[in-house]
From TrEMBL:
Name of the featured protein: Peptidyl-tRNA hydrolase
PANTHER family: PEPTIDYL-TRNA HYDROLASE
Any one GO molecular function term: tRNA binding
Keyword set, alphabetical order: Hydrolase, RNA-binding, tRNA-binding
Assigned protein family: Belongs to the PTH family.
Enzyme class: hydrolase
Catalytic activity: an N-acyl-L-alpha-aminoacyl-tRNA + H2O = an N-acyl-L-amino acid + a tRNA + H(+)
Enzyme Commission no: 3.1.1.29
Gene3D superfamilies per UniProt: Peptidyl-tRNA hydrolase
Source organism of this protein record: Corynebacterium incognita
Record-linked NCBIfam families: pth
Amino acid sequence: MLVVGLGNPGPHHAGTRHNIGYDVIDELLGRASGMPATLSTHKKTNAMVAELAAGRLGTGKVVLATPRTFMNLSGGPVSALAKYFSVPTANVVVIHDELELDFGVIKARTGGGDHGHNGLKSCTTSLGSKDYTRVAMGIGRPPGRMDPAAFVLKPFGKQEQADIPIMCADAADEVERMLK
C-alpha cells in the first residue's frame, strides 16, 4: 500500500488547511510499531518517504509519503512513488483537505470526482485513473466571500486547532482499517 498525504512544502505552510494531509502522515508515522518512523528524502520520486515493513502499520508493507512539490503538482510524485514501489493504483491512498465537507468530517471513498481540488486533479491525471482511494478531511467553506484559494492557505483558527489532533487520529484510524 502507498499512503500519501497532500500538502505544500516548507515551514510557512505548516498548520494550514491545505497541509492536513501531511498532519495525518505524521500521526501514522507515530503509530508505527517498534519506534516511530520518520520520513526521508527520496530523490527519485521527489517525495519524503518512510517504508514500513509488514506488521509495523498494518499486515503488509506500507509506504507513507508526502510530495515535496506544491499541492497542484502532487500527481507527479504520487505517480512516481506508485511506479517505483510497484503499487497498483487500487492500492494508493491519498489524504487531502476538502472544502465541500464540514470541518471535522472525514470521508473515505474510491474513485469519483475531484470536487475542484487541484491536488486530486493532478493525481488523477498523473496516475491515469480515478480508481485510487481518497481520505477527505473536511475543512469547511471559507467565510463570507473569501477566496477558497486564500482560505486553504490560512492557518486553522484557535478553536479548530484544538480539534486537529482528533481529526488526524480519526483519519489515521480509517487508514489503518484499510491496511488490515
